[in-house]
Amino acid sequence: MAKKNLYAEKTFEALENSTKDVHGYTTPWQRRFLFDMARSLNKNEIAVEIGSWKGKSTIWLAAGSKKGNRAMIYAVDTFTGSSEHQKPGKIIWNFDEFKLNIKKAGVDDIIRPIVNTSKKAAEEWKLPIKFLFIDGAHEYEFVEKDFSLWSPYVVDGGIIAFHDTTPDLKAILKNWAIFGLPGPKK
Questions:
Q1: Are 35 and 64 in contact (CB under 8 A)?
Q2: Residue 23 belongs to what domain range?
């Protein structure tokens, strides 16, 4: 048992080092959760991430999947940022950076990006989902819409996880600016 934990710690340390320059908003323990969820999937099961930004959490999902059974990871995003990223006259397009990040991490072979809104992607979606990670827009109406659109595809026994739902007390104690947002919390 101790060897297994030591192995996991080395895996997490290496993954933290390889993703340290990838901008993202998840904490180390949240990334480990995503890794473990994806690692637990069977080969024929699917994980869907709504909101991938520049790929940090996507890389952790894919790395976990590769340590497990190589389940496919679908990354749904407009790659133009959430409302908090929008500034008048500023155009955001980070899909190229996302692709570069997942390629550098060596996980681009099991990630399928879907460049679209959550709504349009869900309208075309047909596959059952075992793990759904909702981290798109953070206003209540958008979070609720993501849940309404995508939860019907989650299989019995599947898991839906939301990001930014509660203040992260560990992050607060470390003085990190990572707090729960009102929409996901509601």
A1: yes
A2: 2-160
